[in-house]
């Protein structure tokens, strides 16, 4: 029986994945928006949230690749109708990744001050960054656990329950942000930036609890750890290692972008924080269709349905370009109101408005890069993703950034470099995909 790749079915997978995918950037955007409007030291607080969010995103993206690896393997076995052979793999993967997350806490917590000095943070910004991180880092294991469970659901071709979990966590975070940051007169003292951190940790814990409930109640995947390791654990680990190297390269980009913005001063890092978080939001919106590509490509590859795989990629290119243009147009219509959500500082807003158009203009390019990221993850071809991102980071992004920074372009340098980085990520993947699967589809 052929896999359904109709627009209706793609949307059935993509829209819930889109909603669940934006939960993490919404947590950070909520923190940024609420902290950016506190009464005292709002600009420094906003800058600190931006710096810590960049570092935490690096950690989450490095270790959160379990979602893609689990999804790839499970979806391929679903396509081959052999799911029973890897039912114990998700629990083993979750055990490995949560163990690593505990080691990350132990390894970073005592050195938070030194870590954020590397991002050029100093004075009050450094103090706030350390305060915020030393609370938020305890939500890290819960986040990784939830991400891994999401991978199991995606492999099973189900994005509905991850969406429910994400909605619960997002609503909880927004409510707790208002309560803990601003306080409740006569009941709860305002906790400012620390309150935003506590709100995020509680929301992440709640999402992990919901993830346990839905996985055990709605699937046949157990969470009980069993040995010996599944036969696919070696492939899982190799995928993780390739994605680990790839994500390190990705975070070299984010590190240099954040460090350069911070070096320009508090006004610039605050403007950068708003712009990059909105960029992340756009990326995670597109991630819904990237996830659909991930889920369906894995199943099609497992079932050797190569002609449908080519058809799927063509459809996703069209949908992705339309979505990217739509995001850009909505951002253009809300150009000025968006900035005012995050800050009232006229200097910060000036710098943000100067470069936000670049963020919007690159959205169609982003959609192509992210969708093919998803397809290659579904195929399990992580080494291709690794090589493309290494090349785009070290041969494209960094040289352009340093050159434009030398010309004193400041935030323009960062976002122009990111645009060329996205182009260098997306188009090679399309060409490689065609080269591999066009011949196979003709024999299908």
From TrEMBL:
<feature type="transmembrane region" description="Helical">
    <location>
        <begin position="93"/>
        <end position="112"/>
    </location>
</feature>
<keyword id="KW-0812">Transmembrane</keyword>
<dbReference type="Pfam" id="PF01554">
    <property type="entry name" value="MatE"/>
</dbReference>
<protein>
    <recommendedName>
        <fullName>Multidrug-efflux transporter</fullName>
    </recommendedName>
</protein>
<dbReference type="InterPro" id="IPR002528">
    <property type="entry name" value="MATE_fam"/>
</dbReference>
<keyword id="KW-1133">Transmembrane helix</keyword>
<feature type="transmembrane region" description="Helical">
    <location>
        <begin position="316"/>
        <end position="335"/>
    </location>
</feature>
<feature type="transmembrane region" description="Helical">
    <location>
        <begin position="388"/>
        <end position="406"/>
    </location>
</feature>
<feature type="transmembrane region" description="Helical">
    <location>
        <begin position="160"/>
        <end position="184"/>
    </location>
</feature>
<feature type="transmembrane region" description="Helical">
    <location>
        <begin position="355"/>
        <end position="376"/>
    </location>
</feature>
<keyword id="KW-1003">Cell membrane</keyword>
<feature type="transmembrane region" description="Helical">
    <location>
        <begin position="269"/>
        <end position="296"/>
    </location>
</feature>
<feature type="transmembrane region" description="Helical">
    <location>
        <begin position="412"/>
        <end position="433"/>
    </location>
</feature>
<dbReference type="InterPro" id="IPR050222">
    <property type="entry name" value="MATE_MdtK"/>
</dbReference>
<keyword id="KW-0050">Antiport</keyword>
<keyword id="KW-0406">Ion transport</keyword>
<feature type="transmembrane region" description="Helical">
    <location>
        <begin position="196"/>
        <end position="216"/>
    </location>
</feature>
<dbReference type="InterPro" id="IPR048279">
    <property type="entry name" value="MdtK-like"/>
</dbReference>
<feature type="transmembrane region" description="Helical">
    <location>
        <begin position="236"/>
        <end position="257"/>
    </location>
</feature>
<feature type="transmembrane region" description="Helical">
    <location>
        <begin position="132"/>
        <end position="153"/>
    </location>
</feature>
<keyword id="KW-0472">Membrane</keyword>
<keyword id="KW-0813">Transport</keyword>
<feature type="transmembrane region" description="Helical">
    <location>
        <begin position="45"/>
        <end position="63"/>
    </location>
</feature>
<dbReference type="InterPro" id="IPR044644">
    <property type="entry name" value="DinF-like"/>
</dbReference>
<comment type="similarity">
    <text>Belongs to the multi antimicrobial extrusion (MATE) (TC 2.A.66.1) family.</text>
</comment>
């Amino acid at each position: 029986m052929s896999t359904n790749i109709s627009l209706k079915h793609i949307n059935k997978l993509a829209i819930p994945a889109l909603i669940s995918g934006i939960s993490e950037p919404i947590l950070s955007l909520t923190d940024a928006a609420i902290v950016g409007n506190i009464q005292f030291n709002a600009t420094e607080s906003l800058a600190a949230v931006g710096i810590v969010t960049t570092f935490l995103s690096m950690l989450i993206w490095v270790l959160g690749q379990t979602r893609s690896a689990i999804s790839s393997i499970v979806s391929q076995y679903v396509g081959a109708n052999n799911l029973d052979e890897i039912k114990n793999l998700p629990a083993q993967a979750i055990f490995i990744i949560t163990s690593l997350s505990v080691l990350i806490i132990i390894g970073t917590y005592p050195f938070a001050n030194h870590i954020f000095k590397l991002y050029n943070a100093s004075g009050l910004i450094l103090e706030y960054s350390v305060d915020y991180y030393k609370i938020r880092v305890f939500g890290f294991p819960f986040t990784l656990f939830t991400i891994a469970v999401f991978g199991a659901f995606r492999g099973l071709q189900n994005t509905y329950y991850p969406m429910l979990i994400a909605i619960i966590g997002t609503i909880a975070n927004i409510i707790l942000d208002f309560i803990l940051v601003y306080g409740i007169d006569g009941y709860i003292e305002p906790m400012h930036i620390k309150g935003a951190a506590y709100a995020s940790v509680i929301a992440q814990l709640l999402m992990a609890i919901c993830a346990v409930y839905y996985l055990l109640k709605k699937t046949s995947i157990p969470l009980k750890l069993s040995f010996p390791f599944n036969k696919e654990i070696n492939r899982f680990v190799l995928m993780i290692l390739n994605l680990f190297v790839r994500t390190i390269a990705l975070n070299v980009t984010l590190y240099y972008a954040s460090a350069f913005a911070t070096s320009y001063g508090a006004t610039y890092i605050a403007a950068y924080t708003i712009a990059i978080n909105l960029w992340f939001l756009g990326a995670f919106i597109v991630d819904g269709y990237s996830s659909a590509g991930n889920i369906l490509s894995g199943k099609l590859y497992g079932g050797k349905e190569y002609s449908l795989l080519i058809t799927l990629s063509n459809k996703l290119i069209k949908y992705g370009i339309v979505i990217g243009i739509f995001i850009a147009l909505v951002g253009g219509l809300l150009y000025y109101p968006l900035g005012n959500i995050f800050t009232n500082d006229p200097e910060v807003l000036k710098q943000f408005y100067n470069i936000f158009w670049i963020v919007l203009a690159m959205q169609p390019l982003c959609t192509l890069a992210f969708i093919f990221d998803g397809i290659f993850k579904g195929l399990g071809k992580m080494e291709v993703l690794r090589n493309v991102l290494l090349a785009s980071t070290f041969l494209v992004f960094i040289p352009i950034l340093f050159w434009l920074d030398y010309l004193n372009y400041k935030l323009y340098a960062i976002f122009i470099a990111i645009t060329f980085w996205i182009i260098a990520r997306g188009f090679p993947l399309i060409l490689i995909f065609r080269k591999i699967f066009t011949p196979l589809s003709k024999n299908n």
